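User: Before I run my own analysis I want an independent prediction to cross-check against. Here's the chain; please return only the C-alpha cells and, at the end, one sentence I can use as a sanity check.
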Amino acid sequence: MNSNLRLHRAGRASTALVALAVLATLTGCGFRVVSADEPDVSYPATPSRTTASPSASPSPDGTTYEGLRSRIEILSTTQLTCGDEPLRLTRTAMTAQLIGSCPAVIVQADSVQVLADNVDSLVVSGTGVTVVTRHLTAVTFDEKSTASEAYWVEGHPRVTDNGTANTALQIPEN
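Assistant: C-alpha cells:
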C-alpha cells in the first residue's frame, strides 16, 4: 500500500475522532476510557436537588399501583426477602419482588424493575430502573441514574435527584 494512502486514511480516522470529541463537548456529553480491571466507583461532587415529595394526585398518564404491580408480578423472575441489611440489586435487566419491609434498597444496574412492600431508603444508580412500592421514606437518584422511576402509594419521601430525567411520583392505589 502506498504510504501517502496510509497517511490519508489515518488522517480521516483521527479527524473523525476529533469531530466526535468536539460534538460530545458541545452537546454537554462526556466520555472516559476505563480499564476493565478498574472499579467504577468514583462519584464527582455535584450539587444535589432535594425536594419534598410531590403531592398525592393521580398521575398524568393514569398510572396506578395496582396496574404497575400486576405488570411487574407477571414479569418477575426473582423473589427476595428483606432483612436488616441493605439489599443490593446488581444484575442488569432483572425483575424482582421484594417481600417484607426493607430498611434500604440499592439498585446498581440498568433496566431493573422492582416491586416492594415497604422501603425506607431507596438509592438508584442505573438507567431505566423502575421501583414500585406501597410505602417509601426517601429516594436518591445518584449521578449515574438516568430515566429511572420511583412510584409509591403511602408516605412523603424526601427526594434527591442528582441524575438526569428521573421521575419520583406518588400514585393512587387503583
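Sanity check: The beta strands are 49-51, 78-81, 87-89, 95-107, 113-124, 130-141, 149-154, 158-161, 167-170.
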